[in-house]
């Protein structure tokens, strides 16, 4: 990942500037009004730094895991966050247990990054489904937000990022996690609106 100190400082600076602006307007009367915004922006700064540190010291600990359990956990974990954003998340699960060798927490971080980026792309709906093909599981995370310019699609997850995909650190971290699982991640524009993130992983 070609993220230097300048890029990192720029990405952390943005939410901190928002916090600074709201702190300057803060008084006893509007404290509760601005408290949530300030807290969200500080959490964003922490998340950016955590992603950067995680990328620099990446270690994958694979264990046998159930993909249905992971997706159910994701829906439960981010229910309140998405409700606050006014976004509907639908996950299409099958009844069969589907196992793979993976790092549960690292893969959960990938889904969090993608869901968060979907929110930043002004999505109102996020849909997750998957299919089994030979010894692989192909997971699709589809949103109805903004699209990516066609000439930028092949650059997502390398040294490039766009406002549609959020900050470059989270995108590149997700790419590295999937590749360290022996998988692939790609982005494509939907026909109508938004994008689909396609993750391919090997089944155990």
Folded structure, characterized:
The longest helix is centred in the first third of the chain and has 26 residues. Strand 6 and strand 7 form a beta hairpin. The strands form 2 sheets. A 5-stranded mixed sheet has the order 2-4-5-7-6. The chain has a two-stranded antiparallel ribbon with strand order 1-3. 29% of the residues are buried. It is of the alpha+beta class.
Topology, pairings included?
Blueprint: H1 5-25, H2 31-56, E1 63-66, H3 67-77, H4 79-85, E2 88-91, E3 99-102, H5 104-120, E4 125-133, E5 136-143, H6 168-180, E6 184-189, E7 195-202
Parallel strand pairs: 2-4
Antiparallel strand pairs: 1-3, 4-5, 5-7, 6-7
Helix pairs in contact: 1-2, 2-6, 5-6
Descriptors for this entry?
two-stranded antiparallel sheet, 6 helices, single chain
Q: Please state the structural category.
A: alpha+beta
Estimated share of beta-strand residues: 15-25%
* Low-confidence region ranges: none
The level of helicity is 40-55%
Task: Tell me the series of helices and strands, N- to C-terminal.
Answer: HHEHHEEHEEHEE
Strand order of the largest sheet: 2-4-5-7-6
Main β-sheet description: 5 strands, mixed
For the secondary structure, the number of strands is: 7
Bulk shape: globular
The number of distinct helices, counting runs of at least 4 residues, comes to 6
Overall pLDDT: 82
What is the radius of gyration? 18 Å
From the N-terminal CA to the C-terminal CA, the straight-line distance is 29 Å
């Amino acid at each position: 990942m070609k993220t230097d100190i300048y890029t990192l400082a720029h990405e952390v600076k943005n939410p901190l500037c928002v916090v600074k602006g709201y702190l300057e307007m803060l008084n006893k009367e509007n404290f509760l009004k601005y408290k949530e915004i300030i807290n969200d922006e500080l959490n964003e700064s922490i998340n950016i730094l955590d992603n950067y540190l995680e990328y620099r010291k990446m270690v994958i600990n694979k264990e046998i895991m159930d993909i249905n359990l992971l997706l159910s956990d994701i829906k439960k974990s981010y229910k309140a966050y998405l409700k606050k954003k006014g976004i509907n998340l639908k996950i299409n699960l099958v009844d069969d247990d589907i196992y793979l060798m993976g790092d549960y927490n690292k893969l959960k971080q990938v889904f969090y990054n993608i869901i968060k980026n979907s929110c930043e792309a002004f999505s109102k709906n996020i849909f997750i489904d998957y299919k089994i093909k030979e010894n692989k599981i192909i997971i699709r995370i589809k949103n109805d937000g903004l699209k990516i310019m066609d000439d930028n699609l092949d650059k997502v997850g390398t040294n490039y990022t766009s406002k549609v995909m959020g900050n470059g650190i989270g995108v590149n971290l997700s790419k590295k996690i999937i590749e360290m699982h022996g998988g692939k991640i790609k982005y494509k524009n939907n026909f109508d609106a938004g994008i689909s993130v396609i993750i391919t992983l090997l089944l155990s």
